[in-house]
């Protein structure tokens, strides 16, 4: 890394350098060309325009050791001009934890210059074809900001990255170990040590203490810090933009990057704007046409988020004329039944025609939404004779697959086992069975 005219620190191996990037420290007062516009906004509408809105209010919806911690967040709408529809999603752009970034920058020996303005340039004489500064890195910023907002330091490093790191590892044994991990022979060791254990950049630098890469090498290899999508869980008619999320807790006790960051903002009551953008619409929208046809909504846990938006929207529009049936499953009736009061109110007001609840941990035997579906002869009636549409929102690997199988079997019970699958396939191909899922 060079600093205008002098070198700020020297790389151990002078003959080695990064492949194509150079970080040049600029003189005091240099203008920054930074900001969220350099962050990637996949599936963004309106050219991925980024909105910054502080959290206006937040509410913890669950509070017990045997349930996930779920928050409902309301964003301050002052800067939000985009019209959204229930079922839409926003992409939240999180920041890396400052303590983690400080530790990485200290480990790279660049802590003392981390807050100085620097420019990313192309290394003279690079052998890389058509080199350019990656789009997700701001051309003039500070190392601290680049590491906090633009690069992913949590995803386990790829083999090519390890290969580069090996070049800057002094200890011969450590270097040989790194080289082994990225060789074809070391594939299963790579999986064990890096992928399965979810080793992050910092974890790797701790495991290989003699590894001292120039900061440029990290900027060349670290992937962009990705936005996290969240379903909008409110109606635009409420005048509020809300999301509902659960805090991811990994096996080692650490929290998910975005959900942990949002939780910290909530706990600290920080008035820090949360950058996000509106994502392109999907088929996950409440049908406006043919109001005489019923709709079945099936959700588990935080999968209720988009449905709460649907139902609130119908209530605020005063539309009570449609037959809507909600199946909702959570663990306990009093600990993690999200939006309990509102859902009961939707039933009373007539927005919901039917409500079927299942609580998986209230009794010895698990009670899932599938049990309610199987036990409801009307379900078959609504699908086969009333042409109901079905929306499912839940865990992709388990809930959605199991609910689909259950629908096939339930429908098959009445019209012949093989026909159940055919009916469901036809519903999928004609947009009458729509799934929204993640994980
Ligand atoms: C279309 C779409 C809509 C979404 N809507 C919502 C929503 O409304 N509400 C919501 O809460 N989330 C929603 N998500 C998920 C959300 O985008 C994030 O992926 C999630 O919040 C985790 O982000 P994070 O940065 O906190 O975790 P990361 O730091 O990205 O960590 C996630 C990693 O942690 C691990 N992990 C994930 N889940 C668990 C778990 N339960 N226990 C242990 N480890 C786990 C996995 O290895 C995963 O790769 C949606 C995703 C998509 C694609
Ligand atoms: N827009 C979107 O795509 C979107 C938005 C929000 C949420 N989601 C999805 O919704 C899921 C919500 O789950 P959660 O993690 O918040 O809640 P959770 O508390 O982990 O699970 C909710 C309920 O589902 C039950 N369950 C577990 N396995 C099941 C299965 N195979 N079939 C039916 N029910 C099952 C759980 O029971 P036990 O734990 O007692 O077994 C629990 O009662 C997320 O994983 C996510 O995939 C999607």
Automatic annotation (TrEMBL):
GO terms for molecular function: [methionine synthase] reductase (NADPH) activity; flavin adenine dinucleotide binding; FMN binding; NADPH-hemoprotein reductase activity. The keyword Cytoplasm does not apply. Its EC number is 1.16.1.8, 1.6.2.4. Its cofactor is FAD. Residues 48-287 form the FAD-binding FR-type domain. GO terms for cellular component: cytosol. It is an enzyme of class 1 (oxidoreductase). Keywords: FAD, Flavoprotein, Oxidoreductase. It holds the Pfam family FAD_binding_1. It comes from the Eukaryota. GO terms for biological process: response to hormone. InterPro entries: CysJ-like_FAD-binding, FAD-bd_FR_type, Flavoprot_Pyr_Nucl_cyt_Rdtase, FNR_nucleotide-bd, NADPH_Cyt_P450_Rdtase_alpha, OxRdtase_FAD/NAD-bd, Riboflavin_synthase-like_b-brl. PANTHER family: NADPH--CYTOCHROME P450 REDUCTASE, NITRIC OXIDE SYNTHASE-RELATED. This is Methionine synthase reductase. It comes from Zophobas morio.
């Amino acid at each position: 890394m060079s600093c205008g005219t002098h070198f700020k620190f020297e790389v151990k191996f002078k003959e080695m350098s990064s492949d194509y990037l150079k970080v040049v420290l600029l003189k005091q007062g240099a203008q920054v060309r930074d900001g969220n516009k350099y962050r990637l906004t996949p599936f963004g509408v309106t050219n991925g325009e980024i909105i910054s809105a502080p959290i206006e209010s937040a509410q913890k919806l669950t509070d017990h050791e045997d349930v996930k911690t779920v928050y409902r967040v309301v964003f301050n709408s002052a800067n939000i001009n985009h019209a959204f529809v229930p079922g839409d999603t926003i992409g939240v752009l999180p920041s890396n934890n400052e303590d983690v970034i400080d530790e990485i920058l200290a480990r790279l020996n660049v802590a003392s210059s981390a807050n100085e303005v620097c420019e990313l340039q192309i290394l003279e004489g690079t052998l890389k074809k058509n080199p350019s500064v990656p789009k997700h890195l701001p051309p003039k910023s500070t190392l601290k900001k680049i590491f906090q907002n633009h690069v992913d330091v949590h995803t386990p490093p790829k083999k090519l990255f390890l290969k580069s790191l090996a070049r800057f590892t002094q200890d011969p044994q450590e270097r040989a170990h790194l080289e082994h991990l990225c060789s074809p022979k070391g594939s299963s060791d790579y999986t064990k040590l890096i992928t399965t254990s979810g080793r992050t950049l910092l974890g790797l630098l701790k495991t290989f203490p003699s590894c001292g890469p120039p900061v440029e090498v990290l900027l060349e290899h670290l992937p962009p810090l990705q936005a996290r999508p969240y379903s909008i869980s409110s109606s635009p008619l409420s005048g509020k933009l809300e999301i509902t999320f659960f805090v991811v807790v990994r096996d080692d006790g650490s929290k998910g990057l975005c959900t942990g960051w949002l939780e910290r903002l909530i706990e600290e009551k920080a008035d820090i704007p949360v950058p996000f953008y509106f994502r392109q619409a999907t088929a996950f929208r409440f049908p406006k046409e043919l109001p005489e046809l019923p709709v079945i909504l099936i959700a588990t846990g935080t999968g209720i988020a988009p449905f709460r938006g649907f139902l609130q929207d119908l209530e605020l529009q005063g539309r009570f004329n449609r037959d809507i049936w909600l199946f909702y499953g959570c663990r306990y009736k009093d600990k993690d039944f999200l939006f309990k009061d509102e859902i009961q109110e939707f039933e009373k007001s007539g927005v919901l025609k039917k409500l079927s609840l299942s609580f998986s941990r209230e009794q010895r035997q698990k009670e899932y939404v599938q049990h309610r579906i199987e036990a409801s002869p009307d379900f078959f009636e609504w699908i086969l004779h009333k042409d109901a549409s079905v929306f499912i929102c839940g865990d992709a690997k388990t809930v959605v697959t199991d609910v689909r199988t259950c629908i096939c079997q339930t429908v098959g019970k009445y019209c012949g086992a093989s026909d159940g699958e055919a009916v469901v396939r036809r519903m999928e191909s004609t947009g009458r069975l729509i799934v929204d899922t993640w994980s």
